[in-house]
Amino acid sequence: MVTAWSSCEQDVDDVRDAVSAILTDLGPAGVDATDGFGPGWDALVKGGYLFVPADPAEGGTLAEALAVVEEAGRHAVRGPVAEHGILAGWVLERAGLPVPEGPLTFAPAPGVREDRGRLFGTVPRVPWAQDVHRIVLLVDSPDGPAVAMIDPRELAIQAGGNLASERRDTITLDGAAVIQQAPAPGFDELEARAALTRAALICGAAARAVGLTLRYTKERHQFGRPVGRFQAVQAHLVTAAQQVRAAQVATRSAAMVTTFEPEKCQVEAAVAKIVASHAAGVVAAATHQATGAMGMTKEYELGHLTLKLWSWRDECGSEAVWSRRLGERLVAGGAEGYWPLIAGDAVAAAAEPVGSR
């Protein structure tokens, strides 16, 4: 396990470096909403980085896939980078269904019902619904929760978006035909994966926002010296940098644990999403304080990044939702389960007095 874990960490670092180099070479992403996904998405597809995460023994792990998502967040890549392989592709594969070619998206659809191979209902805020090849939904069927794949061309789609102008469309299902369907596997892990995708996106965008702010405060002079030399500005920069690092540690740790010990995914994802969502708000506020009015202009990249942070902090479970869920789990475990849950079973056992074992 130790060897496999260490090897995976090295693979994750290699993937992150490679994707960062590719996306950096493309230059700054466009900030306006446009049709299609753009060169960032195309580069990731061409490089084979939008894969379906497999078993750790087979390579192409969740931790590596989340490293790609983090870099996509840093470089503002448009498209369903988070949904394509980690959610839609993975749940299809786990359900024993073939994964089709072309971009995929995923959305839970608890209010949708399935009847003899047809779907009925409405699903709001489906990421990139009008732009993908197939939509994968988690629906209610007569036999229980099911995975259903549909063709977006057969749907009525109402265009929508989040604060950052990323597609979040409403789809209306009026007897839409199901292309593939199977019982839904691993709901807890699927939910955790969704939360981790948003935590990873936040890590990338937050790091980019802090980097931009550091550069701006070095270049911008006021009263004869860089504004970054003023103590009040430095306090904002330190706070933002601390929050980014905390989010990275929580998210990357959760990615590794979920890769090798998926039974612990809910707790790890909860911690990562709580820390990342909190960091999103703090980083957005601190970087705007440090840059002043410049940070709010349409021409400057920072404002577009912070719009993404504000959007992603609430998607796939807000900070409050995951905090409540984690708290309920702690209470349900009682006093005996508290320390093992937060420290890990092995660490907790090693810390127990000898006479108590």
From TrEMBL:
InterPro entries: AcylCo_DH-like_C (IPR036250), AcylCo_DH/oxidase_C (IPR009075). Transmembrane segments: none annotated. Residues 196-309 form the Acyl-CoA dehydrogenase/oxidase C-terminal domain. Signal peptide: none annotated. It comes from the Bacteria. It holds the Pfam family Acyl-CoA_dh_1. One of its GO terms (molecular function) is acyl-CoA dehydrogenase activity. Keywords: FAD, Flavoprotein, Oxidoreductase. The keyword Repeat does not apply. PANTHER family: ACYL-COA DEHYDROGENASE, ACYL-COA DEHYDROGENASE FADE28. This is Acyl-CoA dehydrogenase/oxidase C-terminal domain-containing protein. It comes from Amycolatopsis orientalis (Nocardia orientalis).
